[in-house]
Design brief:
By secondary structure, the protein is an alpha/beta fold. About 40% of the residues lie in helices and about 15% in strands. The protein has a 9-stranded mixed beta sheet with strand order 3-2-4-5-1-6-11-10-9, with helices on both faces. The protein has a two-stranded antiparallel ribbon with strand order 7-8.
């Protein structure tokens, strides 16, 4: 009888222990780890040199002297060098009449190169992949790009696919968020995330300055990532996701319209970049930072910032007084910034009091690869790794911006010391260069002194 009552009394305790075990076990399997990633590097025959870029501009018969001067100023101040890559149809001289097939071929070339290398290096077969998430904003195909991947690599019939379009330059973190949420419900999974942008069908050949600017900034690129929540692989992983925050200001008309695909007055489709874009980016960034800062910073820094802010309001300092700035470096070791342009990098650096050392990875990525849209973050991360900056336990803060208008950010923890040369291997020794000034002004600076009434484009 005593044994019976002992068992009876112990049942609630055993039930409680079982519940605790299930909760702990579930949390162990909810981790989100990057096992490996592979950035795309096109061949040298697709490099946009100064001379060839000039030839592309000359081929556009819709441009006049004012547009030439605008383009020269934009390119010179862009922070982009001569080693960036363009789509093949530009080199074939067909940018005014691109085909849907151009976009498909561009994506297939990237997908087959990156995914093949990633799976081979990771020793994971395509049949082991449980989830495929693809984000390419400006190309929609039927079947989808995700389906093309499944077909090419002959993946399982039960593989789950997600194909994201129209999400802009911040889409890769949205893809990571999709995987993160799936991992919360399913154990022992492999996820393939593919991020890129299709430039071929979206090259603008008109004369609207707000739309030809996109041709100066966007370049070919892409990245494939292998993620998992397998507990036994966590020590072999490269990065562990600590937190991720997404901010969307699409309800504000000004923010919604600052980056938008539309037709110009002649019916040519292009990507419009409005003058209010910096304002929209700043607003979304501030709101995003308010949410993610408490998740990534130590309590002492949050209390310090709150105290300083309160004192400033209490003392009612003059409007010109310096505003308190939160010190992200108290919880972050490295900053992985979206290479939206020199102005974007400068603005974030100024707002967060970052040093040139902090901004170097983004500046160098912009110079070497340009703005590769949603994949640009991973080239920046690759630069840090190639420079052997990433040590076990370091925290990496990613910030990205995209049409909508969106600001997405996340924090990664480096699981082990990293130092692979990756896509930077053949050139990392020459970075940073002594100067980031590109040769466009030296070669085409003469156009600034031309008069519109007498100007004639030389043959």
């Amino acid at each position: 009888m005593d044994h019976f009552f002992m068992i009876l009394y112990s049942l609630p305790l055993l039930s409680l222990l079982y519940i605790i075990y299930k909760i702990i076990d579930q949390r162990r399997h909810q981790g989100c780890y990057i096992l490996d990633y592979q950035c795309f590097k096109p061949g040298d025959d697709r490099k946009l040199s100064t001379e060839f870029s000039g030839e592309i501009i000359k081929r556009n018969k819709n441009l006049g002297l004012n547009e030439y001067k605008f383009l020269l100023k934009a390119i010179v101040s862009s922070g982009i060098g001569e080693q960036t890559y363009g789509p093949r149809m530009v080199f074939a001289g067909r940018e005014e009449n691109p085909t849907h097939e151009d976009g498909i071929f561009e994506m297939d070339e990237f997908l087959h190169d990156c995914i093949g290398k990633l799976l081979s290096r990771s020793k994971v077969s395509a049949s082991e992949i449980d989830v495929v998430v693809v984000n390419v904003s400006m190309l929609a195909s039927i079947p989808s790009l995700a389906s093309r991947i499944v077909n090419h690599y002959k993946m399982r019939e039960d593989v789950k696919t997600y194909n994201l379009t129209g999400m802009g330059c911040s889409a890769s973190l949205i893809s990571i968020n999709v995987v993160q949420n799936i991992f919360k419900s399913y154990k022992d999974m492999y996820a393939l995330v593919v991020t890129s942008e299709s430039l071929s069908p979206n090259w603008y050949s008109g004369n609207d300055k707000s739309m030809i600017l996109a041709n100066c900034l966007f370049r070919s690129g892409g990245c494939a990532m292998l993620l998992s929540n397998k507990v036994e692989l966590r020590k072999k992983a490269m990065f562990k996701l600590k937190c991720l925050v997404r901010t969307h200001h699409g309800a504000r008309d000004e923010s919604y319209g600052c980056c938008i695909q539309k037709e110009d007055e002649q019916g040519r489709v292009g990507f419009h970049l409005d003058k209010v874009l910096p304002k929209a980016a700043t607003r979304s960034f501030v709101d995003n930072l308010k949410e993610i800062a408490p998740k990534i910073l130590p309590v002492r820094e949050i209390l310090r910032f709150a105290l300083v802010s309160t004192l400033r309001k209490t003392l009612q300092r003059a409007k010109g007084g310096a505003r308190p700035v939160i010190n992200l470096k108290s919880g972050v070791d490295h900053f992985c910034l979206h290479t939206g342009g020199k102005a974007v990098i400068d603005g974030i650096g100024q707002n967060l009091n970052l040093t040139e050392y902090d901004l170097e990875p983004a500046r160098m990525t912009l110079h070497r690869f340009g703005n590769t849209s949603a994949s640009s973050l991973w080239y920046v991360l690759g630069y840090m790794e190639a420079k052997k900056r990433l040590k076990k336990g370091d925290k990496v803060f990613m910030i990205s911006f995209g049409a909508g208008f969106k600001c997405n950010s996340c924090l990664w923890e480096v699981v082990r010391d990293l130092g692979d040369g990756n896509v930077w291997e053949d050139c990392i020794g020459s970075y940073p260069p002594e100067t980031l000034i590109n040769p466009f002004l030296e070669k085409y600076g003469w156009i600034q002194s031309e008069d519109i009434s007498t100007f004639k484009l030389p043959e």
